[in-house]
What we know:
Blueprint: E1 4-9, H1 13-23, E2 29-35, H2 38-48, E3 52-55, H3 64-74, E4 79-84, H4 89-97, E5 102-105, H5 110-121, E6 126-127, H6 129-142, H7 158-168, H8 173-180, H9 184-198, H10 203-212
Parallel strand pairs: 1-2, 1-3, 3-4, 4-5, 5-6
Amino acid sequence: MKRITVLLAExxxxxxxxxxxxxxxxxxFDVVGEASNGRQAVDLARKLHPTVVVMxxxxxxxxxFEATRQILLAAPATRxxxxxxxxDDEYVxxxxxxxxxxxxxxxxxxxxxxxxxxxxxAGHPYFSASILKRLRDAAQRSxxxxxxxxxxxxxxxxxxAEVLQLVAEGAANxxxxxxxxxxxxxxxxHRQQLMNKLDIHDTAGLTRHAIATGVIESRVQVTTG
Length: 225
């Protein structure tokens, strides 16, 4: 049997070490790389084309939503399994929408993680039991006549999503330009497009939006300007 290659995308080193220690006990798994932020995860996935990426959501530089989208564009055969502290319906729906094959919460056991990886490699979506129940309940509600639909934000381009996260994390235009390899003028253009699309008119508002939509975690300090 061909070994299952795994890329770990998680910004906490102690969690990555624990995941690696767990997976290397199984001879079917080969942990081929580790990423501490979303940008690094995308770069490694493009280079390594792993069978599975175990993906956290709240990561610096590039969050798990956008990292997953970019990975699956670059390596369509790769499967993404979310492993997150967040189990909100909105997070689950957004990760499913960008192509994740499964979603676990960090309270799940190591045995569940191993089973989930095997299932998604076999082509079967895998969700934590509690999440699966909520998905079924939501599907039933959405099928009811007159069920309300939530208004969604206008879609952002890949570059706009990258700029939003970096700005919300407190990066100045010069830092954003250096990180993305674009000019400061281009960064300013993307910031203005973001504000126009989202009807938000200051950096603090962009940061609050990023927190509310799960782009960054609320530990980031919101400043005015």
